[in-house]
Amino acid sequence: MVQKQLQRLLGEYFVKYGKDFDINFVSIDDIVISRDLGTAKVWVSFLSNANPDKTFQRLKKSSRAIQSYIYKHMPLRRVPNIKWIKGDGPGGQNRIEALLDDIKSDSEHSGSETDGPEGSEDFDSSSHQA
Questions:
Q1: Is the CB of residue 81 less than 8 Å from the CB of residue 70?
Q2: By the 8 A CB rule, do 17 and 65 touch?
Q3: 115 CB-near residues (< 8 Å, 6+ apart)
Q4: Low-confidence residues of the chain, pLDDT below 50?
Q5: What is the pLDDT of residue 127?
Q6: What is the pTM (predicted TM-score) of this model?
Q7: How far apart are CA 108 and CA 103, in angstroms?
């Protein structure tokens, strides 16, 4: 629900103010929000743009204004901080790598809790018969 609302607000912002920052035709490919609502990773692509890297840098420079707009229009006590990620379109390689990094960092924070089910026996391949 928060993800959809954030996507709607970002879309509104780009329609209203994107031209002020020379950011046209932005595609929000995906949004992943942390469980504590502290961070929102937003994958964006730029359609029909000659220099998407330059446009992405302009987007990052205008990030403060965008974040301010979100704070004013999102009726939550805790509004996520946006981390922009330049995407390759839906399902791009950058998104997959970032999700794998998140899984890795989550498992490091949880310690040995995810090592495996309790009471499981080791599988001995020598006793397995086909």
A1: no
A2: yes
A3: none
A4: 90-91, 93, 112-130
A5: 45
A6: 0.64
A7: 9
